[in-house]
Amino acid sequence: MLHKTLKQCIVTRWNSVLLTLKSVAENLTDLRALSIDPKxxxxxxxxxxxxxxxxxxxxxxxxxxxxxxxxxxxADKQATIHLVLATKRRLVSxxxxxxxxxxxxxxxxxHLEFSWIATL
Length: 120
Description:
Shape: globular
Mean pLDDT: 89
């Protein structure tokens, strides 16, 4: 049994992929316990066997600043327009690949950086 719910990605909701990944990370112990149960579905067993905790946390680390930026710029009781440029610069800077980034993280950063360029 899971102690916390798993969140599903919803195409129309900002940051839903991040929420899904975080919910999986928070439930890893329970999910692994469920996956070794003889009654577990084969798909769950396969997915849990292939899940890379380090990669999961690295991708969460790439996406987390976007969630923080969304919350910062979505304030409804104060103006936030003055924060847009600084927030954009911080996010673009965050997308610079660093030594130690795995290939998936580098590709994720490149994809996100390209999406910034495409919106200009």
